[in-house]
Specification:
Number of domains: 1
Strand content: under 5%
Number of helices: 5
Largest sheet: none
Keywords: Membrane, Signal, Transmembrane, Transmembrane helix
Low-confidence stretches: none
Mean pLDDT: 83
Radius of gyration: 21 Å
Number of strands: 0
Shape: elongated
Oligomer: single chain
Order of helices and strands: HHHHH
Transmembrane segments: 38-62, 74-95, 122-146
Structural class: mainly alpha
Distance between the termini: 42 Å
Helix content: over 70%
Signal peptide: 1-22
């Protein structure tokens, strides 16, 4: 299996995890009560959608030219970086909403959420962390591929210039 297919499978796995996370585990409280939950669901669904697009692009899009492939690698690196940062930020705010520091002072938190709801929130957080780690792994693989191809491109350009200078 090629590196491109490994990245595609990782992205499709992240899409599945994110979709599962947003639809089942991150939907505990009503949306109008917990806006950090809404932000978390929005980012995880966006991550799922983008990962499906980039994951399937291996088999749905192919170019025989080097330049579009190079541009797609750099766009994918930028998109994966944005997704990682967005997921980390929403994880932070989601943890803040799970801990309910502001509410702890005045209310008994145990009565607000059932044990199942608390477990769902923690499962959602763990799934988000797994998704971030898989996104990071795919970012590293794409970055290594882009770096290797750029290195080959510079060597090829150097050899072409060198052969032109000899003439």
């Amino acid at each position: 299996m090629s590196r491109k297919e490994i990245v595609s499978f990782l992205l499709l796995l992240v899409a599945l995890i994110s979709l599962l996370n947003a639809t089942i585990f991150a939907n505990v409280m009503p949306t109008h009560i917990n806006f950090s939950q809404l932000g978390h669901q929005t980012i995880t669904l966006s991550t799922s959608y983008i990962c499906i697009l980039y994951g399937l692009s291996t088999w749905l899009y192919h170019s025989n030219y080097r330049r579009p492939r190079r541009h797609m690698r750099w766009v994918q690196i930028a998109m994966l970086s944005i997704l990682i940062v967005a997921n980390i930020v929403t994880c932070y705010y989601f943890v803040d909403s799970i801990s309910m520091r502001k509410v702890k002072e005045s209310t008994d938190i145990e009565s607000l959420l059932t044990p199942f709801e608390r477990a769902c929130k923690w499962i959602s957080l763990v799934l988000s962390i797994v998704a971030v780690l898989l996104l990071f792994l795919s970012l590293v693989l794409v970055w290594l591929t882009a770096w290797r191809k750029e290195k080959e491109r510079h060597i090829r350009l150097y050899q072409e210039r060198k052969s032109v200078m000899k003439r």
